[in-house]
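no rush on this but wanted to send it before i forget. theres a chain ive been looking at and ive put its sequence and its fold in token form underneath. please have a look and point out which stretches look like helix strand or loop to you. thanks a lot i owe you, the record is right below:
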Amino acid sequence: VKFFGEVSPDEVPQYMNSADILFAQIGQNFSSAIPTKIFEYISAGRKILLGLPEGPAKEIFKNFYGVEIFHTGQFSEMESAAQSTDLSSTPIREEPAFSIDRNSFFRYLFC
């Protein structure tokens, strides 16, 4: 596991596309949230480890291939989900679904 700290928005796609696995977690207080970050992760074609409370995000993302979900804050579940993720195999997609900068991505989604 490598932590890079803060990176500029323009560098994010480069890091996502080179990662073996991507991680996100939504706290219990945000159970109705559906973060766009997770859609970006899916488009990168990498395996994803998600900590999600019960709610719409869990219902949506459980249907995607390559996404392992655990209950928010449950370390043992996170550990099991991480162990069940086969990092020895190739990424879900070798090339990202798209290659545009973050601002263009959001303009594409919301315009």
In short: The beta strands are 21-25, 47-52, 67-71. The mean pLDDT is 80. The two ends are 36 Å apart (CA to CA). The CA atoms of residues 34 and 57 lie 5 Å apart.
